[in-house]
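Backbones bend. To wit:
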Amino acid sequence: MAITLSNVSKQYGKQKALNQISFDLKEGEICGFLGPNGAGKSTTMKIITGCLTDFEGEVNICGIDIHRHPLEAKKLVGYLPEHNPLYPDLYIREYLLHIARLYHIHNPHQQVEQIIGLTGLAPEIHKKIGQLSKGYRQRVGLAQALVHNPQVLILDEPMTGLDPNQLEEIRNLISETGKNKTILLSTHIMQEVEAICERVMIINQGQIVADKSLDEIRSLSGRGIYIQVRFAPDTNTQWLAAHPLFEKTTQLTPDNWLLHAKADTDPRIELFQQAVHHNCPIIELKTEEQNLESIFREITHTPIPSSSR
């Protein structure tokens, strides 16, 4: 296995960021790591990369225990953190040579030139990092993560702040890189997960709540449309909690519900009739086909008590 976590826990004061999570990533896998803000994604990634050491449990990188042999494990990992820490006053080549020397790479000039070509930095190579666009700064971040040719690549929100053209460029770069590396990719952009990843892990409140192939994740909730409905304020909507029209109902706010219809049904007409019967005026109603985003919301949303069956 390229990455193995066994019963890993991490606590910040009284707050438990991770609660005995365990998973394996095989060589060559590209895994999307999803979860709401504060769920534990970045903490997990910092532990895997050796940036956080005060945790419980075991972490192995390609069979090397990161607690017992931290330097050997870190040599195998490339890391692009969420907030890409670069030196704005250095030129691109100058910065990458600095990183390469930190890793004691044999023939660093040759390796840096290869990475510049791989990441498409050549058109901007004459610039200082501080002069680059957001997309090119992300490319520099990927280049520094790749310069020592790691077996494992950890990418924390690599698409943040990119425009559509930059998104496509970085997506293609990650896909190409993933042909011979294990990649753990954290992002809030569901389309990128569907475009790049073969496997999806979802973490919520410090625990892994789903870990399946992309196709299996899509089928978690079966077929059927999703309906998001908002009622007039201060109306009693609890009649929806166990309504036979729906496979699952989740109360997002007192007046706002996410409803998963049973397969091959469209309950909207009856929903309107029931709303009239219960004197609950509908202010807004939206429907959508099942997709990764709706499944993510359903899995990670913590419902109001007694609202979901």
